TrEMBL record:
Designated name of the protein: Inositol-1-monophosphatase
Binding site for Mg(2+) 2: 90
UniProt-listed Pfam families: Inositol_P
Source species taxonomy: Bacteria, Bacillati, Actinomycetota, Actinomycetes, Kitasatosporales
Required co-factors: Mg(2+)
An individual GO BP term: signal transduction
Top-level lineage group: Bacteria
Pathway involvement of the protein, from the record: Amino-acid biosynthesis; L-histidine biosynthesis; L-histidine from 5-phospho-alpha-D-ribose 1-diphosphate: step 8/9
Reaction catalysed by this enzyme: a myo-inositol phosphate + H2O = myo-inositol + phosphate; L-histidinol phosphate + H2O = L-histidinol + phosphate
Amino acid sequence: MTDPALSELLDLALEAARRAGALLRDGRPADLGVAATKSSPIDVVTEMDIAAEKLITGYLTDFRPDDGFLGEEGASSPGSTGIRWVIDPLDGTVNYLYGLPTWAVSIAAERDGERVVGVVEAPMRRETYQAVLGGGAFANGEALRCRPTAPLDQALVSTGFNYVAHVRAHQADVAQRLIPRLRDIRRSGSAAVDLCDVAAGRLDGYYERGLHPWDLAAGDLIAREAGALTGGRPGLPADGDLTVAATPGVFEPLQTALDELGAWHD
């Protein structure tokens, strides 16, 4: 990496994610419960989500007090430097609540609106994913590349479901009609981990409706830097309507199928 500014941002994101991951892994109370709900009674926030975001924003502010923030648990400030940190302190909260291992800390840095750094820390996997715009993607120091291209009917694809009942019902209908066109489908419960699994060659593709910027910011960059393609509906970037990430040969047919099946609306 030749840009010292991006090197600084990466180092800060790595350390903040490492600290938050350690807090979440080692500090999880035995009687962990729900602190609040979001979109529905089953879309939850725990005290550890809040504590992890506070740790991350506090650490980053110590070094870069004038940067902006956008965090899932309420951190929001415009900043004055052109740098904005997009933070999901605990992606996969329901997994974490139940003691399942698929959860992660996701931190991205944007410069003048463009994502330039992404870090996903998955403590229970003992894996740290990272990417810098134009610099490739890595996991624990090893370069990542997405899988070689496969036909759609041989593709393993992951997805996620909304916590609002009627939205989830439509998503289940889309998945039911999509499955016969694929090798199979998976559901991990963490968008950040799914995007990194595309980057690492563990999945041929991933799609989901209803993601927020903090869900996808770091993972989207990591997937793209590993050679995957990402987007939303045909011709549009990944967003809350639809996020698609896949190997180059799977991306277009998967995106087209999802558009035909109405995966972009409720």
